[in-house]
């Protein structure tokens, strides 16, 4: 995160320095003084009005015939229950044992320090 903000800061400095030169400032002033104002938009030609929608006659549909729905039978025969053959008994392979993880020492060993030089 800090590296990206440094890169952004450096790029903004380079951009500011490049626009601060005298030639760029003079060119920008020249362009601002020589360009005319915003051109006016040309007017669109007048379009003819849209035609009116014709009115269509409404159709009269005959009524739907009332037919009685068929009745469902009430005494359905019972279906036989399916029988499946027994599953063969298979021996599952034994799972490998996971080796134990060695314990991590929690104490820091002391390091021997050299003796200071004799003072003279």
UniProtKB/TrEMBL annotation:
Keyword Signal: yes
Regions of compositional bias (Low complexity) in chain numbering: 89-99
Keywords: Signal
Composition bias, Pro residues: 45-71, 79-88
Signal peptide: 1-27
Region (Disordered): 41-99
Domain of life (superkingdom): Eukaryota
The protein's name: Uncharacterized protein
